[in-house]
């Protein structure tokens, strides 16, 4: 039964995305989705309480792609800094098929009357960054962990903002920015912690 519900949710989301691609995210309505699928609004409501829940499901797919990285054979042997780069990239790549719509979803949430969506978005970012830490297997604890989370959140926001408008082939400019920010974060962590390049890897927030 749970599998059937998941399939229904996936089908609804896919129809919504396809319809929005023909116009815009702002113009799509749940009754459009229901009509396209030949079902009633109650059938949509059974899986999505409102339109923004569709956007949440879209970002859930990115989180799922991020989490799948942890199942990669030999993942623990990949250097931490590289794991971080892969983690950010996997999250973004999962959204690449509907980048314009992703940008419009963010714009919809940032409208002045959607304060409740903005609060939800902040919480969402916090959760995603937490999972980036877990997937990258960062060992920091205590104040080092809090500092690392602040840095990772800043990187996430900067890279995501760049990716939303990046028209370069393969979003190369976004990847370059991500690489530079991770290098800067690594250097900053070393300076703050007073670590040298030969310090034990288990004591580093990055690398």
Description:
With 207 residues, this protein is mostly helical. It starts with a helix and ends in a 14-residue tail after the last helix. Residues 195-207 have low confidence and may be disordered. α4 runs antiparallel to α5. It contains 9 helices and no strands. This is TetR/AcrR family transcriptional regulator.
Supply database-style keywords:
single chain, 207 residues, mainly alpha, Arc Repressor Mutant, subunit A, Tetracycline Repressor, domain 2, 2 domains, 9 helices, elongated, disordered C terminus
CATH homologous superfamily of the largest domain - what is it? Answer: Tetracycline Repressor, domain 2
User: How far apart are the termini?
Assistant: 44 Å
What can be said about the biggest beta sheet? none
* pLDDT < 50 runs, ≥5 residues: 195-207
CATH topology of the largest domain: Tetracycline Repressor, domain 2
- Choose one word for the global shape: elongated
CATH top level label of the largest domain: Mainly Alpha
């Amino acid at each position: 039964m749970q599998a059937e519900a998941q399939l229904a949710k996936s089908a609804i989301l896919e129809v919504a995305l396809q319809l929005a691609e023909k116009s815009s995210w702002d113009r799509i309505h749940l009754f459009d989705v229901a009509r396209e699928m030949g079902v009633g609004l109650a059938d949509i409501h059974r899986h999505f309480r409102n339109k923004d829940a569709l956007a949440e499901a879209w970002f859930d797919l990115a989180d799922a792609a991020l989490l799948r990285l942890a199942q990669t054979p030999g993942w623990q042997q990949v250097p931490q800094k590289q794991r971080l780069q892969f983690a950010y990239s996997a999250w973004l790549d999962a959204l690449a098929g509907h980048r314009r719509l992703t940008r419009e979803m963010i714009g919809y949430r940032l409208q002045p009357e959607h304060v409740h969506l903005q609060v939800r978005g902040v919480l969402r970012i916090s959760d995603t960054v937490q999972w980036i830490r877990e997937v990258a297997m960062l060992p920091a604890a205590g104040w080092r962990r809090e500092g690392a989370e602040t840095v990772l959140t800043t990187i996430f926001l900067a890279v995501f903002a760049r990716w939303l408008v990046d028209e370069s082939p393969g979003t190369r400019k976004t990847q370059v920015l991500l690489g530079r920010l991770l290098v800067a974060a690594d250097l900053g962590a070393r300076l703050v912690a007073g670590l040298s390049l030969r310090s034990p890897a288990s004591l580093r927030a990055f690398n």
